[in-house]
Each structure stands twice: as C-alpha cells, then as structure tokens.
Design a protein that fits this description.
eight-stranded antiparallel sheet, binds 2-acetamido-2-deoxy-beta-D-glucopyranose, 26% strand, Immunoglobulin-like, 13 helices, alpha+beta, 637 residues
C-alpha cells in the first residue's frame, strides 16, 4: 500500500494503474522513488533493512509514461525507456532476479549507480594492483574491455557482494565502470558509445540483472549457473600434478637448443619432476612466422625428441601477432584480409615485441583468418612433435583502434578475445591462455598475467592470492599461476621471496617454475622439493575440486567465506584461500615474517592434516608460527 502511494507521488499524472507489487516478493519489498539526479532509485526493503539497490538513471528526463504488461516499463521524455522485469527463483537457491533493459538513442549516456555500502565486493576486472575484496579499487570511467593496461586480461562484467546480491551486465552493453571516482564508495555502471566502442552502433543499451539471494554463496552459485557458466572439461592432469618448467623468466629471449637441453638436464639432475618444458620467446625466425629460427634450433625435431627422451613433454610459446617485415607471412595475411583493421583502414598496431616497427593482429573473428593461423600451428606441432602451446595476449586493446570486426557490432570489441581463445582451445587440454571474455566454459588453463618480483600489491606476491580469488569468483577457476618468484623484470627473486611464492602456490591448480631452486642454495632445494611433493600429494584433491568445477560450477580455490557465507569476519580476508571446501591455506606473504595471524572459519581443523593437531574454527589464531620452511595449511574434519 505504502509503495503504491510513493509511486503515485513520483509518477504524478500517470500513476493511475501502476501495480508496483509486481516488484515485490515475500522476502523483498521494492519501490521506485525519485532521486536527485533526475532519475529513479529502486529501493528495496530486505532483511528488515531499507537500501537503495540501484540508482536507475541520471538525467533521464521527465517520466512520460509507465506501462505495465508482465513487466514495468518506464518511458522517459527523451526517447529512453527502461523495462524492469522480476523473476522469483525457487528451489535450492532462493532469491529474486531483476532485469533492467534500457534502450536509448546512441548519444545517450545511461548511468546506474550502486552504493557499495558496508558490504564487501567480489568479481570485477582483473587488475595489476589486485585488491581484494574489490571495493577498494579505484576505476575512473574505466572501459570494460580486455586490455593490456592494468593487466586487465579478464573483464567479466560481474559484481557480487557479501549480502548476497550480484550485478551482471550483458555483453552487448558498451560498458564503463566508474568506481570510487565520480562518487566515493559507489560503483557507477555506464553505457556510452565512445571509444573503445564503435560509433557504428545504432543505439545505446544498458542491460543487466540484479540477483538478490539469501547469502553470497547462493548468489554466486546462481550467477554461475545462469550467466558465467562452468568449464566443460578438465585440463591436462599431468599439468595439475607436476610443475611446468618455462624458459621465460630465467633465460628471457636467450634460448636455443643447448640452453633448453641444459635446462632439462639440470631439472632432472636435481631430482625434480615435470609436466613439460615450455620453450618461450624467442624461437621464431620473426614474430608471426610460426617458423623456427634455425640459428637457434638447427633441428627442432631433434630438440623435441631429445627432451622427450629425457621424460619431458614440450610446449612452445606463441601469440596472435605478425610483425611488419616478417615476410612472406605478413604480406600474405595482409593481402588476404586476415589482419584486424581499424575503421580508418589501418592494420598497424603494436605489442611488447614489435621492436620499434609495427605489428598486426590476426583477425580471429574471421573464420578464414583463424583457420590459416591454426593450420600453420598444427603443421608446426606435427612436424616437430610439439605437444601444445602457451598462447599469449588476446586482449582486445591490441587491435588497431577502433577495430572493424566480424559479427554483431554490439559484441565488439570483446569478441576478438573470445574468438581467439575459443580458436586456440581446440588444441586441447594442455593449452594455456591468459585472456578471457565470457569463456569460462573452455576446459583449459587460464594463466595469470605476468607477475612482478615484489613483496607488494604492485603485482607482487600478495596478488598471487588475490588474482586467484578474483579469477575464481568470476568463474575462471582453472587458474594457472604465473612463474614462481615472479618474472624478475625488476630483479631476480630473493631466496625468501622464491620460497614464500612457491608455498603460496602449493594448493593452486598448477606450479610453474622458471627461476630454479638450485640457483639459491641447498635449503631452497630441500624446501622446494617438499612443496613440489606436497602439491603432487594433494593432486587428487585438486583434481577433485576441478571436477566439481566441471559438474557444479564450484570455484576450485574460493575465498574462505565460501564455506561460511554468513561469517562476517571471513568476508574481507585476502591472504588465505581454500582448495575445494576442506583445505584452507594461509601463506606468509610478508618479507621477514616468521609467523602470521590466521582466521579459521567454524569447524574442526587439523593443522597440516595432522590428526594430533586439532584446532577449533570460528576464531583467530594470532602469531601462528611459520618459519621459512613452513606453509600453514589446515584440513577440515
Ligand atoms: C545465511 O543467512 C540467511 C538468512 O539471512 C539464511 O537464509 C542462509 O541460509 C544462511 N546461509 C547459511 C549457509 O547458513
Ligand atoms: C630488436 O632490434 C635490435 C636492433 O635491430 C636487435 O638487435 C634485437 O635482436 C631485436 N630484438 C628482437 C627481440 O627481435
Ligand atoms: C649441498 O648438497 C650437496 C649434495 O647433498 C652437497 O654435496 C653440498 O656440499 C651441499 N652444499 C652445501 C653448501 O652445503
């Protein structure tokens, strides 16, 4: 009754037959009211609290009419409409799903804001400075596309909060996010047709859903089922069990036949197992040739065979670029129209390896272009017996701007990322990619973008954990952490950082070495062996968690609130993570620390799985001892 009255007040003349109860359910009461921005607020009363869930619209102009069929449709004077529909969700997960579909002329800027409140928030874009939870992120008018800047290799338009509410944006929205910028403690979701979105769109759309559930876990489970999707299969099991050894951080571009053989021999000599040896940059005669440089690898078949006879599988690094001057491949791709072109007709762009010339980006949205690329790689694989590939890049920002891509204009530019990773995923379960755009269903590893060798949130060790959580809570749970110790772009890792990094990585789905334990000392070798063995020992549990990701969409490495979704203490813990639902990992990520505080959610826990060391959860353990050879972890009874 009260809600109806408020609506009358808001809508004035046209309020006659509006039944606002359409938006109401037993658990949630919703009403619309005017806001100071010349738009509407949608206000919910839930769990006895009234909260503004969304500011729907700013400067939308006067309300012209409110129509109601099975939905509520509000028409504004300036040719803008919003349709709000509501769906009751019942069954195992109970809640309510509101969908908002704004349509507006192409010049309109549609803006819906969410007060971040006192909740904690998860999801959001992958970031170089990956804070977790994400309400601390500052994102000024941030285009929501995969991009090189800020290591934003995954841009999943999904926000989830500790109250059990999620926001999910349709991929057709030309989305920007402004968080903690225009307004503090608010996230404004903006649809606007401006770069990097093409001006060829004929209208503006802002389409999204708000899911309101009993708790945060239910909300996320529902979002996975309905929007994010789950992987359709499991990646390679040997990559889960044993470390990948990459040439990249230790050798950078100085690789050749002798270097990789010597690397393999060292690994074996020091008694470490392997899933494969990855030959990274630089093996090509020029970038994009997909042709081996014989000055480095005079007989690649022989290199691969030699590695195989030593018990290594072999993968090589590759990418979607062709540098200008890399002939005849560049000219062939150009003449056949296989390169991404801008709206100005230019194919020229750049990447980190163009070496002061320019490069071009293969247009994976064109079937002929991707087949050309895939067939050449397949030939390479078959000629030398290479097992699989590390696929680098894939972000939409590598395109010459604004790219002209195939398909619905409203899927652009994100479609290039999706089409690239979907194409290369065809090489099977040993594939790794590093970008994602609504590709959670692929049964392949997604690598964290290169980490730096720091102890800080500047893309250093703490972000190994927070990126893991960020990816998992966007539905990308087949996470391949990057090199242990970071990439050493600034300086090589210290012994302590290397050991702490390995420990933090132990209960993640895979280990990847490039810096090696024997470059430090015997103690490092000994500790590294211990954690490589522990990782292998827990491989069945990792595999079990990966299988549950496939069957149920469960995160492999969730934040600890996953098993205690109403435990407010758990909500903002970023330096602990779970493997599945029964193993809690609390790595030391602080330089010099030999102890740390650990929070255990309710339950009985066994320290390091030892039945003699029972601990009661629901409490903090202050100054828990963690000398350099110790990773604190706990197994739930
Ligand atoms: C969390 O609390 C809500 C009530 O606010 C309840 O419906 C839900 O079942 C609780 N979740 C768990 C896992 O206990
Ligand atoms: C870049 O160019 C310089 C100078 O021409 C050359 O010495 C170097 O090897 C090139 N680097 C790569 C990665 O091609
Ligand atoms: C390291 O271990 C090796 C093999 O066990 C041994 O020969 C060597 O003396 C040790 N080095 C140091 C510095 O302890």
């Amino acid at each position: 009754m009260q809600a109806t009255l408020i609506l009358v007040a808001v809508l004035g003349a046209c309020a006659q037959a509006v039944d606002i109860s359409l938006l109401n359910t037993p658990a949630v009461k919703a009403r619309l009211e005017n806001n100071p921005y010349g738009g509407l607020n949608i206000v919910f009363t839930r769990k006895g609290l009234t909260e503004v869930i969304a500011v729907i619209g700013r400067r939308t102009g006067a309300i012209k009419d409110v129509v109601q069929d099975s939905d509520v449709v509000i028409q504004f004077a300036n040719d803008t409409t919003v349709r709000i529909s509501v769906e009751e969700v019942s069954g195992a997960r109970r809640g309510q799903l509101l969908t908002f579909t704004w349509e507006a002329p192409k010049s309109a800027r549609l803006e819906d804001c969410v007060n971040l409140g006192t909740s904690h928030w998860y999801g959001g874009p992958q970031q170089k400075r990956q804070y977790w939870p994400i309400e601390r992120l500052i994102l000024p008018d941030y285009s929501y596309v995969t991009k090189e800047a800020d290591n934003c290799g995954i841009a999943e338009p999904y926000w989830l909060n500790s109250e059990g509410i999620f926001y999910y944006f349709d991929k057709k929205v030309p989305l920007f996010i402004d968080q903690n910028d225009l307004e503090k403690n608010a996230a404004c979701f903006i649809a606007q047709i401006k770069p990097p979105y093409s001006s060829k769109r004929d209208r503006n759309d802002l389409i999204y859903a708000i899911g309101i559930f009993e708790d945060v876990r239910q909300a996320h489970e529902y979002a996975v089922e309905k929007y994010l999707e789950k992987p359709t299969g499991i990646p390679d099991e040997r990559m889960i069990k044993y470390p990948i050894w990459s040439t990249w951080a230790r050798y950078k571009r100085n690789v050749d036949h002798d270097v990789v053989l010597k690397f393999a021999d060292e690994i074996t000599q020091y008694g470490f197992p392997n899933s494969q040896l990855e030959i990274d940059d630089l093996w090509e005669v020029c970038y994009g040739a997909q042709t081996v440089d014989v000055t480095r690898f005079p007989n690649m078949k022989n290199t691969v065979d030699s590695l195989k006879s030593r018990g290594y599988r072999v993968t090589i690094w590759t990418h979607p670029f062709i540098n200008k001057g890399c002939e005849p491949w560049y000219s062939e791709a150009l003449s056949k129209g296989y390169l991404v072109s801008s709206e100005y007709g230019s194919v020229e762009t750049s990447w980190w390896n163009d070496n002061e010339t320019t490069t071009a980006y293969i247009d994976f949205t064109k079937p002929e272009a991707r087949n050309w690329y895939l067939e050449r790689l397949m030939r390479l694989k078959n000629s030398y017996g290479i097992d699989s590939f590390k696929f680098d890049g894939g972000e939409s920002s590598w395109s010459p701007q604004i790219p002209v891509l195939k398909g619905d204009i409203r899927d652009q530019p994100g479609v290039i990322t999706a089409d690239y990773v979907r194409s290369v995923a065809q090489f099977g379960p040993m594939v790794e990619v590093r970008s994602g755009y609504k590709t959670q269903d692929l049964p392949i590893f997604v690598r964290m973008i290169d980490k730096d060798t720091y102890w800080t949130f500047e893309n250093g060790l703490p972000t190994l954990i927070t990126t893991l959580l960020q990816m998992n809570m966007n539905g990308y749970s087949l996470v391949l952490p990057d090199m242990i110790g970071g990439n050493g772009y600034n300086e090589p890792p210290s012994k302590e950082l290397f050991i702490r990094w390995l420990q933090a990585n132990t209960f993640m789905p895979a280990l990847q070495f490039s810096y090696v334990p024997w470059d430090f000392d015997n103690e490092t070798i000994e500790i590294s062996k211990k954690y490589v063995a522990l990782h292998a020992q827990y491989a069945p549990q990792i595999l079990g968690a990966v299988r549950r990701a496939v069957t149920e969409g469960a995160p492999v490495n969730p934040p600890i609130w996953w098993i205690a979704p109403n435990d407010t203490t758990a909500y903002d813990i970023w330096d602990e993570y779970l493997l599945g639902e029964t193993i809690l990992v609390a790595p030391v990520v602080e330089r010099g620390a030999r102890e740390r505080d650990i929070y255990l959610p309710p339950g009985t826990w066994l320290a390091e799985g030892n039945p003699a060391r029972r601990m009661q959860g629901g409490d903090w353990y202050k100054d828990y001892p963690a000398p350099l050879n110790t990773l604190p972890y706990f197994v739930r009874v």
